[in-house]
Design brief:
2 copies of one chain form a homodimer. The first copy, chain A, is of the alpha/beta class and 383 residues long. Chain A folds into 2 domains: 143 residues, Rossmann fold; 191 residues, RNA polymerase sigma factor, region 2, helix turn helix motif (Rna Polymerase Sigma Factor, Chain: A). Helix content of chain A is 46%, strand content 16%. Chain A contains 16 helices and 12 strands. Chain A has a 7-stranded parallel β-sheet, sandwiched between helices. In chain A, strands 9-8-10-11 form a 4-stranded mixed β-sheet, with helices on one face. In chain A, helix 6 runs parallel beside helix 10. The mean pLDDT of chain A is 96. At the A-B interface, strand 8, strand 10, strand 11, helix 11 and helix 12 of A face strand 8, strand 10, strand 11, helix 11 and helix 12 of B. Strand 11 of chain A pairs antiparallel with strand 11 of chain B.
Chain lengths: 383, 383
């Protein structure tokens, strides 16, 4: 039986994780849960899954939860989340906090020797070198929960990376895949939030539309699978049935598919090296009828080029890309900027950055905070 | 270095095998070659690959080859092929003799403890139970060379069969995939031999058009992967890019793809568990653009139903199906019968058969010969 802490339990991935857990109560025991402030959802989860400890990072929300007198220890603040991530009696941490706040608890969990089911790609985007080195030194497994990286992980299935010619990440093309670059200037927030295939959180839905999400995944794949950048390709695949592929040196390509539902990759990260049943319905290819592919249009999706540029520049540049994007997407979600401003703000923030190696988590977080401040300044200059 | 005998070296698979060998001269040494009667091709192969022993089953052709004074031992007859299959200093036999004559040398190679790269699906269609039991008892590996079974083998990659929900064999739909069942009555031999995707031998090209080839592959998969019949599906996939798939209990599907070229599966069977480079060009998905699927039309492809019926009936019925089909296809290739007669002759031969267990190779061959005689009688009755 695997003993879990779930960071971000009230988010989209957290909820799907608990659905997987509830399908296999003999395989999993939830020990810790952590959320930001959604205490109604958290209360329901406490009642159903009976964790020993929960953390609520928002102090006010934590205070309200405490008043309910639930039979659980309640921790608060960022430190509370770290404590849930490092509990002595857990073996696996599901890291599904949205965005840069996920880095520190994920890193602390690795330092404490916990295996990680990683949804928070920012941990690798911001601090891939540090995180992977720590995981290697502690001998912990980092199992991908992103559908693309789970697909790659399933396609690789332990093969020698010398046999890999390319990792091919698929991208749905997001909410605006059927619009031209020119049409993007006037799109609305509501349109951007209407993802054709996946039901996800707001931030990642916007990142899917801009393809920044795919860019961050390229960076994540770079660290997770230790492949050079030129061995990572992106192809648009509107149906989101093939979640990614690996092309080998003999010309054989292995692809992983399923209906688009995050329970698939979550389950695999938790059941690995086994597979558990009753997770997703089977694919029916006679009903699917067709799978299509096309090259990403760089003019329409400037985020792709920005991420390759950031990774090539190295050091703290990917961290700056991510931080500026978080600030810009937040501004777009609050209707302070237009959709096409997002990439421009990221690009301008990157231009202002002087790269440093980023050898400590503190340095990386400092750079991330600096970039968010710069992005905010740029937003203010514009409006 | 792997030491090989190649049975059927002058056929399509044999030639592709030698192309793979010539790409990796440090990995392979060709010790034995066997062919039926194509001594010109064989002479060229002897000069290039310098085998120690060759066998020519046709006595006249063997006599002609001997006159050439080549520096190689030349054996003759069916027994000569068995000797090449069981040479003391080889470890792997590429079994690529077309049709039922491939059974005995393949079986003798297994008895002699040789690993088998198996293209001759008839060995399993005719005598799957006997062949697999012998392989298990001798601890030899039977590595599939059929593109579909190689795909399944690559997708399974050693996984527990309890995790498998379905094996999904893809079929191109063959030469007549764009014609209706009604249009098949008047098709010509030349049209039938014009396969849209694969460049293969004549017999298998006709079997691809009728989907009998897929039926035989269902039977082959049944024995090779030890899965019940209801876990094997067939889907039409006209592009022949996905060579087959495995659907797992968690809803995840793993697919194997490549350009349609038999060097892919041949190389994997010979390099397994490694992959060797420089075999096939990479797939370019932006150029492929689409992969499509549809359900096989049972009216158009009666062979599919016949094979499921034969496997359900069990015992020697799959052997009868195969033998009758060989005779019928041969008659079609000689323009003695029409295209749609093929399935009718197979069906009628099956109707005449009283199933026996088929527990020995001799019994199986006896039944196969009986079925060929019956099919020939039926052909004669018709013309």
């Amino acid at each position: 039986m695997k003993k879990l802490s779930i960071l971000g339990s009230t988010g989209s991935i957290g909820k799907s994780t608990l659905e997987v857990v509830s399908k296999h109560p003999d395989k999993f025991r939830v020990i810790g849960l952590a959320a930001r402030n959604s205490i109604e959802d958290l209360e329901q989860q406490i009642k159903e899954f009976k964790p020993e400890v929960v953390a609520v990072s928002d102090e006010t929300a934590a205070g309200e939860l405490k008043k309910k007198g639930l039979p659980v220890e309640i921790l608060t603040g960022e430190q509370g989340i770290v404590e849930v991530a490092t509990l002595g009696n857990i073996d696996t941490v599901v890291s599904a906090v949205v965005g840069s706040p996920g880095l520190v608890p994920t890193y602390e969990a690795i330092k404490a020797g916990k295996d990680i089911a990683l949804a928070t790609k920012e941990a690798l985007v911001m601090a891939g070198k540090i995180v992977m080195a720590e995981a290697a030194s502690k001998g912990v497994s980092i199992l991908p929960v992103d559908s693309e990286h789970s697909a790659v992980f399933q396609c690789l299935d332990g093969r020698d990376m010398n046999e890999v010619e390319k990792i091919i990440l698929t991208a749905s093309g997001g909410s605006f895949r059927d619009r031209s670059a020119a049409e993007l200037a006037n799109v609305t927030l509501a349109e951007a939030l209407n993802h054709p295939n996946w039901d996800m959180g707001r931030k990642i839905t916007i990142d899917s539309a801009t393809l920044m999400n795919k860019g961050l995944e390229v960076i994540e794949a770079y660290w997770l699978f230790n492949v050079p950048l030129e061995k990572i390709d992106v192809v648009i695949h509107p149906q989101s049935i093939i979640h990614s592929m690996v092309s080998f040196i003999d010309g054989s390509v292995i692809a992983q598919m399923s209906v688009p539902d995050m329970q698939g990759p979550i389950s695999y990260a938790l059941s690995y090296p086994e597979r558990f049943g009753d997770i997703l319905p089977s694919l029916d290819f006679a009903k699917i009828k067709e799978l299509t592919f096309n090259e990403p249009d760089i003019e329409k999706y400037p985020a792709i080029k920005l991420t390759y540029d950031a990774l090539e520049a190295g050091g703290t540049m990917p961290c700056v890309l991510n931080a500026a994007n978080e600030t810009a997407v937040d501004a777009f979600l609050n209707e302070r900027i237009s959709y096409t401003d997002i990439a421009n703000i990221v690009s301008e923030t990157m231009n202002r950055h002087s790269i440093v190696p980023g050898d400590t988590i503190e340095e990386v977080i400092g750079v991330s905070d600096w970039a968010k401040g710069q992005a905010e300044d740029i937003i203010k200059e514009r409006v």
